Amino acid sequence: MKNPPDTRMTSSSQRIAAVDAARGCAMVMVCVSHIKHHFLESWPVLHWLIVSTTRIATPVFLLLSGFVIRYLLRTDPRGNASITLVDRGLFLLLIAHSLLGLADLPELGFVQWMFGRAVITDAVGFALLAAVLLRNASTGTLAVLGATLCVVGWVLGMTLTPQTELQRLLGAILFEVRRTGDLPVDLALVPFVGVFLIGMSISSSLHEWLVTRQEGLIARRLFRLGSLALGAALLGGAVWHFGKGYLVPALGSPELSEFVRITLDPRSKNPPSPAYFLFYGGAGLVALAILFNGRPAALVSPVIRRASVLGRASLMCFVLQDWMMFVVPKVFGFSDVQSLGFWIFWLGVCLVVLYTASRQWDAHRGNRLLTIGLKALARRQLATRAAAANEGGAFIAGWKDPRYGWIRGVRKHRF
């Protein structure tokens, strides 16, 4: 009997099916999270359950993005990946940013909508630019820098007190400062760029195994890392829960006690606490380990095959689901419907549309359209230089040809 094809790693050196599948699963979580606000009053338990489970999507997506980008950079001996990443990063910051949040445009006004909000694609865009600058950084450097950004972002997000409107805006976008009011900021850029760098460091530590397709070893390492992160988050929460009677008096200040409590709470997302990153990032690494492990094959292989379709078209899916979850309901007047059955049905419709669109996107190589033209410009410049080099080589070859020795004679014997 022939062995079934291994769907965990693709034949392409630049695609990892298990990671694509994890990105696809994160995209499903994003879609589910975008219906939760319809159940806040009518189904509070369901709302809490959706919030608690889908918070895994954002940190995992940044981890996976960093994981893939580091692998891409290290399997690019010619250095062509750098211009591709700069091109894609600028596309995310300029074009993708303008395609998201269209439902909020009438309420916010163009200036606030364009320059006064931050979404996950902005974090990925800045992270791609940082990845190019840090392409030669060591595993330890990436890990330390990423963790530092997460911790510093958390401390500043909790302690800064902006005074001016510009300080409020920058504080919200960079650190999601708590005292900035109700600004349309989905995430803090600095700590989530840190998560991206941690993903790069994990990929760097596994690079040899990734190149040689050692899925079992990769799965075990990821499972250990994820379990350690989860254990640290749960231990911190347990220490506060069972020891707060001693910790609060020892800390003295109510403000310091509140800071420690929120720091150890995995539910603290705005701004994101270290416990939040450890818990949900660790859970994401455990899930990725299961996908790399591929067992039980009867369950995991179908998930990889289908979810990786969404993962390979993740940016297109993110934009499309934003339109279907927010723009379409507002345009057609059903954004205020509170029916649980209706929104589950609409979620199903969105997932079917996303999967169908992703298959077509993949078949027509749609990701090549996600560019502002830098890659094509660089390709033309390289072609021009190559043509010039070829012409120069042909001229030199003709000069050395004995049939044209009279030319040298003319230059030697001047008339």
Structural summary, described in words:
By secondary structure, the protein is mainly alpha-helical. 73% of the residues lie in helices and 0% in strands. It has helices at 17-33, 44-54, 57-74, 81-99, 105-108, 110-115, 120-133, 139-159, 165-175, 189-205, 207-211, 215-251, 254-263, 274-293, 297-312, 314-331, 340-363, 374-400, 405-412. α1 packs across α14 and α3 crosses α14 (274-293).
State the end-to-end CA separation: 85 Å
Order of helices and strands: HHHHHHHHHHHHHHHHHHH
Q: Low-confidence spans: pLDDT under 50, at least 5 residues? A: 1-7, 403-415
| Count of the domains | 2
- DSSP strand (E) fraction? under 5%
Mean pLDDT: 88
| Percent helix range | over 70%
Q: Give the C-alpha Rg.
A: 26 Å
Number of helices: 19
Task: Tell me the major beta sheet.
Answer: none
Got a strand count? 0
Q: Which shape, going by the Cα principal axes?
A: globular
Structural class label: mainly alpha
Question: What's this, in brief?
Answer:
With 415 residues, the chain is mainly α. The protein folds into 2 domains: 17-372, no CATH class; 373-415.
List keywords for this structure.
globular; mainly alpha; 73% helix; 2 domains; 19 helices; 415 residues
Chain-wise SSE layout:
Layout: H1 17-33, H2 44-54, H3 57-74, H4 81-99, H5 105-108, H6 110-115, H7 120-133, H8 139-159, H9 165-175, H10 189-205, H11 207-211, H12 215-251, H13 254-263, H14 274-293, H15 297-312, H16 314-331, H17 340-363, H18 374-400, H19 405-412
